[in-house]
């Protein structure tokens, strides 16, 4: 359901228009929009996000290797309207009721926490997104740091959505609040 909704909103449009692809405030990479279909032949991954205890947030996120990084497409729901942080966390284990089992942010380069466009960031620092009045969010952006291959691959890690916003500054996790949804990133 969520994927088909996303496809309706973005799939066809992205062939001809850049308007559907946007990130959280920065500028999408150049040169990607003219031949999106050809760019999507690399490794792919998917996450089914499930709510943690006491929360309702859920959704599906796909990761597709493109020339200048990884394209992230998400259909999320069950959120409180407003700003939420999301990150790739180190451990692919969502079994704890509060998803604490997923560990800290995925940080193979040993750098400080930051925002997606910061000079220094954890590899897993995807920043913030905004849920609408219905508690839904539809995202489509390219992150130049993520990888689906090699030692820094995010496959087998977890993706977590937080109750609050990431301030991109507070160490080690941006003061993002409780973990409200979690899923393991699986190769597709
Ligand atoms: Cu997180
Ligand atoms: Zn971080």
Describe this structure in words.
By secondary structure, this protein is mainly beta. It has a single domain (5-187), classed as Immunoglobulin-like (Sandwich), CATH 2.60.40.200. It is built from three helices and nine strands. It has helices at residues 2-11, 13-16, 36-39; strands at residues 44-51, 58-66, 69-77, 82-89, 125-131, 137-143, 158-162, 179-184, 186-187. Strands 1, 2, 3, 4, 5, 6, 7, 8 and 9 form a nine-stranded antiparallel sheet that branches. Strand 1 and strand 2 (58-66) form a beta hairpin. The longest helix has 10 residues, at 2-11. It is globular. It starts with a helix and ends with a strand. Mean pLDDT is 85; it is low at 1-38. Residues 87, 105, 113, 122, 124-125, 173 line the site of zinc ion (ZN).
Q: What is the straight-line distance between the termini?
A: 18 Å
Find the CATH superfamily: Superoxide dismutase, copper/zinc binding domain
Find the CATH topology. Answer: Immunoglobulin-like
| Structural domain tally | 1
Largest sheet: 9 strands, antiparallel
Which regions are unreliable across 5 or more consecutive residues at pLDDT < 50?
1-38
Mean pLDDT: 85
Strand content: 25-35%
Instruction: Give the helices and strands as they follow along the chain.
Output: HHHEEEEEEEEE
Total number of strands: 9
List ligands, each type once.
copper (II) ion, zinc ion
Helix-strand category: mainly beta
> In the CATH classification, which architecture applies?
Sandwich
CATH top level assignment: Mainly Beta
In percent, how helical is the residue content?
under 10%
Radius of gyration: 15 Å
Overall body shape: globular
Number of helices: 3
């Amino acid at each position: 359901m969520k994927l088909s909704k996303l496809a309706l909103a973005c799939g066809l449009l992205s062939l001809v228009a850049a308007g559907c692809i946007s990130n959280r405030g920065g500028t999408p990479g150049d040169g990607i929009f003219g031949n999106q279909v050809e760019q999507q032949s690399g490794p792919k991954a998917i996450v089914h996000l499930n709510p943690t205890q006491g929360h309702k947030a859920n959704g599906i996120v796909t990761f597709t290797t493109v020339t200048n990084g990884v394209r992230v497409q998400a259909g999320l729901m069950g959120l409180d309207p407003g700003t939420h942080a999301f990150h790739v966390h180190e451990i692919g284990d969502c079994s704890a009721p509060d998803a604490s089992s997923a560990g800290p942010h995925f940080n193979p380069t040993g750098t400080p926490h930051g925002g997606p466009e910061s000079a220094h960031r954890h590899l897993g620092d995807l920043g913030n997104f905004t849920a609408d009045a219905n508690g839904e969010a539809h995202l489509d952006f390219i992150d130049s740091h993520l990888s689906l291959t090699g030692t820094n691959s995010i496959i087998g890690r977890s993706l977590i959505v937080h109750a609050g916003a990431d301030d991109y500054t507070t160490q080690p996790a941006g003061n993002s609040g409780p973990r409200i949804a979690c899923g393991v990133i699986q190769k597709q």
